[in-house]
Amino acid sequence: MELLPISTSHCRVERDGQLVIVTMDRPEARNALSSDMLIGLASAWAYVTAEPEVRVAILTGAEGTFCAGADLKAMGQPSTDPEVRARAAEIANYHWKGLLREDLPTKPIVCAVEGHAVAGGTELLVGTDLRVVAESATLGLFEAKRALFPMGGSAVRLARQIPYCHAMDLLLTGRPITAAEALTMGLVNRVVPDGQALTVAREIAADVAASGPLAVQAILRAYRDTLGLSEPEALKVSDELGWPVIGSEDAREGARAFKEKRPATYHGR
């Protein structure tokens, strides 16, 4: 894999062909969020959107932990790296972009969780599209328990993703939950043996990358762009996104590959 120069001391960004792997890398603090980490995350998501050959990203944490949430002191301190400080000045709202609250990448993100993914860690998970969690992982939104507020967006997003009563259980009690409970709630896609989250996430990412990129990106947009619309209004948006995909060269290649019983080769056009 290629280590990309947009990496920071607390965020490793690597490219492997059509896949970008983003690793929160501050294990001495259980990968708690810092300014260096958020700048790296924001840069990674912008890169995923901008690079046409990138099809999918994975978000994970280093050394068996996903993310223990915000380190308010570290988030308030500027980076000691001049290049990263300069990048922070250039990226408006890098905190929100890093946390997947603003300017979500146009390609899917697969979340690979080992260990703790709590507070801001769970908020990051809620911002991703597909979620793989190790069986002994711990999740939870602890903010209310500490008289804080989940600023990453979960107060709005969570009840749109899982049943209301489950969302309020997590948000209002601030209690930790197991991977098995998260699966039952519909918060995650798969629970896997410890140490296997990244491996399984890569398998899922490979399936996504093998799909037509125009179709994948249009499906993401159809969901995001129709939130709050009535069904007739939403279907109009869906049609506007869908017809160009159906008329694309990729769609013709998909039909040819099916007929010829071979893997399709998509080029995003």
Automatic annotation (TrEMBL):
CDD domains: crotonase-like. SUPFAM superfamilies: ClpP/crotonase. Pfam families: ECH_1. GO terms for molecular function: catalytic activity. Belongs to the enoyl-CoA hydratase/isomerase family. This is Enoyl-CoA hydratase. It comes from Nonomuraea cavernae. The lineage of its organism: Bacteria, Bacillati, Actinomycetota, Actinomycetes, Streptosporangiales.
